[in-house]
Amino acid sequence: MLRSFVYKHPKRIAVKNPEQALIWSPILYCAPSYVENDSFAFLNKKLSITNGIQWNYADYGKLWTYNLNYFDFLSQEDISKDTGLHLIRNYITNENSLKDGLEPYPISLRVINWIKFIGQHEIENLDINTSLDWYTRVLLKHLEYHILGNHLLENGFALYFASYHFKNEKWLKIATTILTKELQEQTLKDGAHFEQSPMYHKIILSRVLDCIYLGTQNDWEKDTLKDTLRTTASKMLSWLSEITFNNGEIPYVNDSAKGITFSSEELFKFARLLKIDWSTVTLNDSGYRMIRKPSYELFLDIGTIAATYQPGHLHADALQFLLNYKNSPVFVDTGVSTYDKTPLRTKERSTSSHNTVETTDGNQYQVWGGFRVAKRSKVTIKEENDSHIIAQLKHFKSSIHHRTYTWDDTHISIKDVVTSKDNKGTASFHLHPDVIVSKISESSVRINDSTINFEGDAIALRIEEYGFAYEYNDIISSSKIIVTFANHLNSVISL
Predict the structure, then answer these.
(1) Are strands 444-447 and 372-376 parallel, antiparallel or unpaired?
(2) Is 392 exposed, middle or buried (0-12, 13-18, 19+ CB in 10 A)?
(3) Residue 8 confidence class, pLDDT cut points 50, 70, 90
(4) Regarding beta strands 388-394 and 400-407, do their DSSP bridges make them parallel or antiparallel, or are they unpaired?
(5) At what angle do helices 81-93 and 104-120 cross, to 10 degrees?
(6) Mean pLDDT score, 135-157
(7) Which among 96, 131, 95, 106 has a CA at the least distance from the CA of 12?
(8) Which helix (H) or strand (E) element contains residue 436?
(9) Residue 453, SS3?
(10) What local confidence, expressed as pLDDT, does residue 369 receive?
(11) What single DSSP character describes residue 22?
């Protein structure tokens, strides 16, 4: 017999203001999301308030509601003390009706943001501190061990901030246990966050830097986590430096979108302020490679799933590539426009939406449910040196896809070989919206002032439109090249 359990949150307990106020002087500022007159803009969707702030507003999707409840806007540069206090007080007034805002992930971010804000403005307020204490105790009852990954890390970061704010040694011990274990497990040998999303890598790195900064401004002899934080930051900075394009942008692969977190340069500047050093790193465990030549940068995804138990932010994009030429994007990932569990979300995670080959076996990974991956293909690097890489994808059904990348200063060759029941494959090449493409023959196209020539068996080439998304809820029409072939295809990009 199934039983249903209803969890009751711990009771609110009136607390005293901390004896010693926490010090916080902001270094990083979030992009503006609070607009005058209690209006908010997240993920390219604006909500104008007419009848009071609707903290449970759900018409724009759960991620939008989450953002509203994070309170990141307290860290935007132009927010005043009075405005911030008004928003916090309004939230506290509506606590009894909160829904998504009382989930552990938004609680975690809100705790951090409130503590930063009241530290910055030297605010002593019993109601705010009582709510912060209550949120932290709610969080402790709902630590996200069922999700793990970046969610559990955010829980740990929130407990770390709360322990400093209230000087609570018990909370510090729990935070230290979580962060020590999870930072070690979730940071790969080459420094990447194991969910293999450059965007989430930067989010986690910013939290690590914030924790280091918290410790420098508020010395607490009970804190034993400081060395772990600095070591982790150094590794993560090394990886970020290696995969950031010369134009300052990250590769927007897997669940990565523009405008969500800080730029690479902002994080590097913050790290230099904290006197954190980083070095050159060889990319390996993350499955990514960055080939830099005088006129172009070639980014390759030749790895397998690293976060095997939490691949929710991964796409079926193995063996794909991105290309920047003269510091401008040419071949791009199609991006992420939504986290809603819709056919669009499934499509954006599919193999056909990336610069790789789809066999008749279909998606390389069974992506489903918005953040789920079932059966997975296996990727193996067969050979690698300074001029070429050979990798193989063995599909979870039966097909095998070999892809060989070869490069010099002016040419990139991509050789695909498919072995399956019908030996057929479809190669996709997604172009940035600023790129002009035209078909000049049945086996070649012009892209701006460069060309791509295709050679192979039974090839058929066409140019189609697709929806390109650098940011959430912002889809721009662009062009993609699709080449169907049998057995093998050799694509040569002449720059």
Answers:
(1) unpaired
(2) buried
(3) low
(4) antiparallel
(5) 140
(6) 96
(7) 131
(8) none
(9) strand
(10) 84
(11) P
Beta bridge partners of residue 234, listed in sequence order: none
State which H helix or E strand residue 201 sits in: helix 198-217
Q: Are the CB atoms for 43 and 67 separated by under 8 Å? A: yes
One-letter amino acid for residue 129 of the chain:
N
Task: Give just the sign of the alpha carbon dihedral 102, 105, 109, 112.
Answer: positive
The DSSP line for 174-205 is HHHHHHHHHHHHHB-TTS-BTT--HHHHHHHH
**Are the C-beta atoms of 411 and 492 separated by less than 8 Å?**
yes
Does pTM surpass 0.70? yes
Buried b (16+ CB within 10 A) or exposed e, 172-195: bebbbebbbebbeebbbebbbbbb
The pLDDT tens digits of the residues spanning 255-305 come to 999 999 999 999 999 999 999 999 999 999 999 999 999 999 999 999 988
Return the SS3 of 159.
helix
18: DSSP letter: P
Two tokens at 83? Answer: 């405005």
| Residue 436, both tokens | 């002009």
- Helices and strands in the chain: count of H runs, count of E runs: 10, 19
Burial call 395-413: b when 16+ CB within 10 Å, e when fewer:
bbeebbbbbbbebeeeebb
The SS3 call for residue 140 is helix
